[in-house]
Design goal:
- By secondary structure, this protein is mainly α.
- The chain has a single domain, classed as Orthogonal Bundle (Tetracycline Repressor, domain 2), CATH 1.10.357.10.
- 75% of the residues lie in helices and 0% in strands.
- It contains 12 helices and no strands.
- Helix 6 packs across helix 8 and helix 7 packs across helix 8.
- The radius of gyration is 19 Å and the shape is elongated.
- The chain starts with a helix and ends with a helix.
Length: 226
């Protein structure tokens, strides 16, 4: 897979993934802006009150909407939860797409992508934690989409690793090894969100990124010796 193909894969518009969330508003830019406001307010409410105890009326109030205005952008609390999950994936894909547009696909690009991914997981750590706590409450159609988005994010790492899988950059690996390393990168971001209560007391996010990046490249280099 070439660089342009990987970049295209990383630039799936969020509007395309959320088109099944009903809205009465025709302006896509306004829908995107208002839904982001809803997402940001809802994350804090879900964390504070729990998903089940948070009401759509509370979400509307926290967002500054009337309940009627809220229902112009979503149809249910489950829609809001799906939008929370999608906002994480959309930001990762947008940021990675920017890196792929300015970098050649080599070790430097992989290091930049790992860094950007972990920075996003730090910035959206509340969102990430919430996503894994409450995805089980999503309707089947939304749960399926969230899992598909997760696999697509990991797929970007797979594609980049495959692209730089040459003797000039890194030792050559089989597809199984590449897949496992890509999933390890995904889990690192989740780990920072899950264990931030410990990590943030002992490490800065930059220290975490530098250590984990060196560990990943060390693992890849070690594989060459086996």
């Amino acid at each position: 897979m070439g660089k342009d193909e990987i970049k295209a894969k990383a630039e799936v518009p969020s509007e395309g993934r959320t088109k099944d969330v009903p809205t009465q508003i025709k302006d896509p830019d306004l829908v995107k802006e208002r839904r982001q406001q809803i997402v940001n307010a809802s994350v804090q409410l879900f964390i504070k009150n729990g998903f089940h105890k948070t009401t759509t009326r509370q979400i509307a109030s926290a967002t500054g909407f009337s309940i009627g205005s809220l229902y112009e952008y979503v149809a249910s609390k489950e829609d809001v939860l799906y939008l929370v999950c999608d906002s994480i994936h959309a930001e990762v894909e947008e940021s990675v797409g920017k890196i792929l547009s300015r970098e050649t696909l080599g070790r430097r690009a992989l290091a930049e992508i790992i860094r950007e991914f972990l920075l996003i997981c730090d910035r959206l750590s509340d969102h990430v934690l919430l996503m894994y706590q409450v995805t089980q409450f999503l309707p089947p159609q939304w749960k399926k989409k969230v899992l598909e988005n997760e696999i697509r994010i990991t797929g970007i790492f797979v594609d980049v690793l495959s692209r730089i899988n040459s003797p000039d950059d890194l030792p050559q690996f089989d597809k199984k090894t590449i897949d496992l390393v890509a999933h390890n990168i995904s889990v690192l971001g989740q780990s920072w969100a899950f264990r931030r209560w410990y990590y943030t007391r002992h490490y800065t996010i930059n220290e975490f990124i530098n250590f984990q990046t060196k560990t990943i490249f060390g693992l890849l280099e070690e594989k060459k010796k086996i």
